[in-house]
Design a protein that fits this description.
164 residues, globular, single chain, alpha+beta, 4-stranded antiparallel sheet
């Protein structure tokens, strides 16, 4: 679930480390690990990131952001970094910390702000924080039959119901 409004409650350092570690331990093509994660906690720097990311002005109100970058010359940098992002988001969510993927291209200003060398391209900025409001309900998703098939497109996928 995308969380865009956060409490001003600090995220414990050990949890921040686990979130970053989840990204670091994510599978990487050829185990090249051509990514870099910059952890930002300073409120002034968070406000600056919020102004640099068009899709994420609410970064300014978060208590933590992770800038996710990959080496520009990497064939698999986008996919590997995307996998790391998902691992970090799920690790945070499991501990009650919300986030959202912001950015996706056009983040040269972010790269410069956090001092990443020219060989890196920023893929995303992930703001984190405890949700300001209770999270209710379930996500609306298409039925499985509309997004998955068995063997060939259009062949119904029969879900196992634990009868094996």
């Amino acid at each position: 679930m995308a969380i865009r409004d956060y409490q001003q409650k600090p995220i414990p350092a050990d949890l921040v480390a686990r979130i970053v570690e989840a990204g670091r331990l994510t599978a990487s093509a050829g185990n090249h690990q051509e990514w870099h994660f910059v952890v930002v906690r300073d409120p002034e720097n968070l406000r600056a990131l919020g102004s640099l990311v068009k899709t994420g002005p609410y970064i300014a109100k978060s208590v933590l952001a992770i800038v996710v970058a990959h080496e520009k010359n990497s064939r698999t940098g986008v996919s590997d970094s995307s996998r790391a992002i998902q691992s970090m988001l799920l690790t945070a969510w499991a501990e009650g910390v919300g986030s959202n993927w912001t950015g996706f291209g056009g983040l040269e200003g972010v790269r410069e702000k956090v001092g990443l060398p020219d060989r890196y391209e920023v893929l995303a900025v992930l703001p984190f924080g405890y949700p300001a409001r209770p999270v209710k309900g379930r996500k609306r998703r298409k039925p499985l039959s509309e997004v998955a098939s068995a063997e060939r497109f259009g062949t119904p996928l029969v879900e196992a119901r634990g009868d094996r």
